[in-house]
Amino acid sequence: KDLASEFWIAYKKISGEYDNNMLERCNSNMDILMLLASLFSTINTTFIIAMQPNPTDTTNNLLVQFMQHSWNGSSVTLPVALSGAVTYSSSKIWMQMLAYESLMFSLLATFSAVSGKQW
Fold first, then answer.
1. Which of 15, 46, 59, 103 is the most buried (most CB within 10 A)?
2. What is the 3 state secondary structure string of the chain?
3. Separation between Cα atoms, residue 109 and residue 53, nearest integer Å
4. Both ends of the chain: CA-CA distance in Å?
5. SS3 track for 48-70
6. Residues 6 or more apart from 96 whose CB is under 8 A from it?
7. How far, in Å, CA of 38 to CA of 114, rounded?
8. What span, in angstroms and rounded, lies between the C-alpha atoms of 37 and 94?
9. Residue whose C-alpha is closest to residue 115's, from 33, 52, 54
10. Rounded-to-10 torsion of CA 55, 60, 66, 70
11. Model pTM?
């Protein structure tokens, strides 16, 4: 064997070990990224749900209107006023926009990590 072939044999062995170590590190990093991003997405979704208007108010108003109609027959004069469109302050709109954006980016990070692991 000549010197060049020994070099390439040694290079292939060393580069293979380095590549395997790098793939293991990247794989474990993507596992951690998926875990943290999914936990963050769960917490963020909880906050987004808490910021939404309470749907039980509309439900209760509709139930009251239904009961009045049932008791009085067709003699109901005016329906119960339902709460119209919900108005938000500009700070609440900004908070919701930031919450949705952070949810989008954390889901994008999770998707990227899954794609990287499958690649």
1. 103
2. CCHHHHHHHHHHHHHHHHHHHHHHHHHHHHHHHHHHHHHHHHHHHHHHHHHCCCHHHHHHHHHHHHHHHHHHCCCCCCCCCCCCCCCCCHHHHHHHHHHHHHHHHHHHHHHHHHHHHHC
3. 29
4. 37
5. HHHHCCCHHHHHHHHHHHHHHHH
6. 48, 51, 88
7. 11
8. 22
9. 33
10. 160
11. 0.61
- List Cβ neighbours of 44 (8 Å cut-off, separation of 6 or more): 99, 102, 103, 106
Determine the residue type at 73: G
